[in-house]
Input
Amino acid sequence: MSALLEVRNMEVVYQDVILVLRGVSLDVPEGAIVSLLGANGAGKSTTMKAISGLLASELGRVTHGEIRFAGHRIDQLKPQERVRLGIAHVIEGRRVLEQLTVEENLRAGGLGAARGPEARRRLDRVYAYFPLLKALRRAVSGYCSGGEQQMLVIGRALMSAPRLLLLDEPSLGLSPLLAGEVFRTVQGVSRAEKLSVLLVE
Ligand SMILES: Nc1ncnc2c1ncn2[C@@H]1O[C@H](COP(=O)(O)OP(=O)(O)OP(=O)(O)O)[C@@H](O)[C@H]1O
Ligand SMILES: [Mg+2]
Output
């Protein structure tokens, strides 16, 4: 059985000249949580952006190797096509849509299912995992605490019903207690939904 995500011998270049990654290979099996380790500037976020397709918006390109997801070659697909296949990327830095409420942020993550019964079902599932978000659903997200915003961006990613979650430094700036809580919730979702997670701590 091949893994859900397979990265093979990948090379990434920014702006056609800056070689950042070479010969990167990794597997994320179905339902597994895989942690990516490395020093600052080693290329962890770049690896995640290559997988989600966000690299293009930073003038980066996969110039060698391949990325396969659920058997499909995905490294030339647009980011939105990868989301539809089931890849959700929580980028570094808790980027909430500050002017919108918690629930509006969540709905924004629902793709075509922003309204209607499917959106409701996904919202309820996110609220079950993060009860705090339910209590805060009418709060303006820009005023939420760092931990609340981290839960929100993870919840928003879950709204696209992903099979693979890319989580970039979710505990940055959180207390160890809160970071532990966020991680345990992610672990719970992974078990319950057979969600695969690629994590940078
Ligand atoms: N948009 C970009 N254009 C050019 N170079 C970049 C760009 N983004 C990142 N880099 C360079 O690529 C290298 C890897 O950066 P990356 O952010 O992937 O590392 P990281 O492992 O996530 O680091 P950190 O632990 O600090 O988050 C660094 O040398 C960085 O300066
Ligand atoms: Mg990084």
Q: What stands out?
A: DSSP finds seven helices and eight strands in the chain.
